[in-house]
Amino acid sequence: MSEVFVVVEHRLGEIRDITFEMLWKAGELAQEHSYGVTAILLGHDVNSIAGAISDRADKLITYDDERLKSFNADLYKEIIAGLIEESKPTLTLIGNTAWGMELAPCLAVRTGFPLATDCIDIDFKDGKLTVQRQMYSGKIYSNVSFSPSPGYLLTIRSGVFSKDRTGQRQAQIVQKDFPLKEEFLKKQFIEFAEAAAGEVDISQADLLVSVGRGIGEEENIALVKELADALNGILSCSRPIVDKNWLPKYLQVGSSGKSVTPKVYIAVGISGAFQHLQGITGAGTIIAINKDPKAPIFRAADYGIVDDLFKIVPFLKEKVLEIRKG
Amino acid sequence: MDIVVCVKRVPLTEEVDLVIDEQRKGIKKDQLAFVLNDWDNYAIEEAILLKEKHDGTVTAITVGNEDDEEVLRRCLAMGADRAIRIDVDDMGRFDSYGISKILSRVVKDLPFDLVFTGVLADDDYSGMVGMMMAEQLKINHANAVIAIEIEDGKARTTSELEGGLSEVSLIELPALLTIQTGINEPRYVSILGIRKAAKKELKVMDLSDLGISDEELSSRTIIEEVYLPPETEGAQILTGDADKIASDFLEILTKKGVME
Could you tell me if A196 lies within 8 Å of chain B, comparing CB atoms? Predict the structure, then answer.
């Protein structure tokens, strides 16, 4: 391996954290094997953000063009495929994000390289690449290797690697010209849209009582709301509750909802999919209530109550009210 | 508007103790219940909603064995017009790339304006079949779609991004869209509905008739080993009777300064 490519993800003029995390891991691998770390930055007016990564890579290749103003998976794919052909990097790292999940499989077909998605660790020893992933909503882990190939593509889960620098680097900056014809532009970016704000902002709450799929039926949400009210906390929820339209989007905690930072987060009937856990990394103390002792939420929580929520939640509420009266 | 929806039957693993199989390459599935992959349920519903609005056909397609027809029958009961199963007995033979090749090969010969897959499948969590198909079919695409409007032969799609943000795009048809959960409210399917749909066409195709070489389908990713999550410290479990649990619970809240 000569080089590790990192595809820089940025949005609205800011480098996204996943980019720093990939650069950190690329730096680790580079140190082990004396490779170079090459960051690939596609966009328009990218000079202002290039500075944020130029001391984290050995080479920074930029394409600065009006046509790259918004993310377009097809343009990214064609440009990066060309670069891969030219430089033959052994590894190309892409974020396992909405954009990365669109780009990486297309790039895998285009280059013929094997792809593993949503990797949580990378091991490269004696010429053998192995990655760690999760299956079955995080209840099973797997080690995945690859058929021999000149290069490999990996998408990396957000939040598993450090955002720090590894070693002293100063990138040689290579500016390239947009190499493609217009005909690739079959998809037109219209606008970004933001989820409607609600009456409460869960990202500001000190105490959140959050409800998940384990609640079973819409009318049962009242049980959790009553506990939240008794505690003077705010009700929030996980994705399945919003998918079913039982609670509004602005109450959703997780990577596609809000990241929250309460002093205490009480997760009721939430199994703990990683997308949800990514939203509560800033919580002070996490208390999980779930009847499945194997639920991944217990691995992230500080305290756990393994019980039927329909019994324990009303009981806890009564005890809180007793004290309040007390 | 002709829409092809690629679906998958997956085991239900929530609140179930999963057991690793002897070869340590997968989990034991004989005791598990199987369902239509959650994302695919939204995808088939979205296809049927578009058909109801713009006319046309909906074809549900899966790769698998006879048991996997169960999810196709469900799609037919929901309102799909016909279903196709590509007969494969040993699914372990193929990785996501192989599956995408098989599906693309079959879809290529069908009339379509849109191809839907779910964003992910709940079993392997790989999330790559859809976009690989888009590239193989050389058609436009959008990922994690949470809203679709058809206007003048184009699709106005809303894709979900991280942090509550979404992205609106206009794309030319034909296109492949990976469908995100929550885009609609999938309709209820009754046993009677499934029985009634038994008359609808369910075509079985033989993999060997597709003319794809074994080499093209050979796996590029190899599962070396699967295992239960590594032991970590995890949560301190509150034990004892309900009164003890409640008093410990309240003590934690008091200590953390949220019980004034």
Answer: no
- Length of chain B counted residue by residue: 260
Which runs of consecutive H residues, i.e. helices, occur in A59-97? 73-87
Q: Which residues are CB-contacts of B23 (< 8 A; sequence separation ≥ 6)?
A: none
- Measured between CB atoms, which of B17, B131, B242 is closest to A102? B131
Give me the CATH code for the A202-325 domain, please.
3.40.50.1220
Chain-chain contact of B221 with A97 (C-beta, under 8 angstroms): no
Start-end of CATH 3.40.50.1220 domains in chain A: 202-325
Q: Is A111 helix (H, G, I), strand (E, B) or coil?
A: helix
Q: What is the CATH number of domain A3-184?
A: 3.40.50.620
- The 3-state DSSP class for residue B104 equals helix
Interface test with chain B among A144, A194, A265, by most B beta carbons within 10 Å: A144
pLDDT, tens only, A47-106: 889 999 999 999 999 999 999 999 999 999 999 999 999 999 999 999 999 999 999 999
Among A12, A16, A115, A321, pick the best mutation site for testing chain B contact (most B Cβ within 10 A): A115
CB contact under 8 A, A98 and B143: yes
Would you place residue A184 in the very low, low, confident or very high pLDDT band (cuts 50, 70, 90)? Answer: low
Question: Please, where are the H alpha helices in B128-223?
Answer: 129-137, 191-196, 214-217
pLDDT in tens, B61-102: 999 999 999 999 999 999 999 999 999 988 888 999 999 999
Mean pLDDT of B17-29: 93
Is A304 close to B236, i.e. CB distance below 8 A?
A: yes
Contact status of A204 with chain B (Cβ, < 8 Å): no
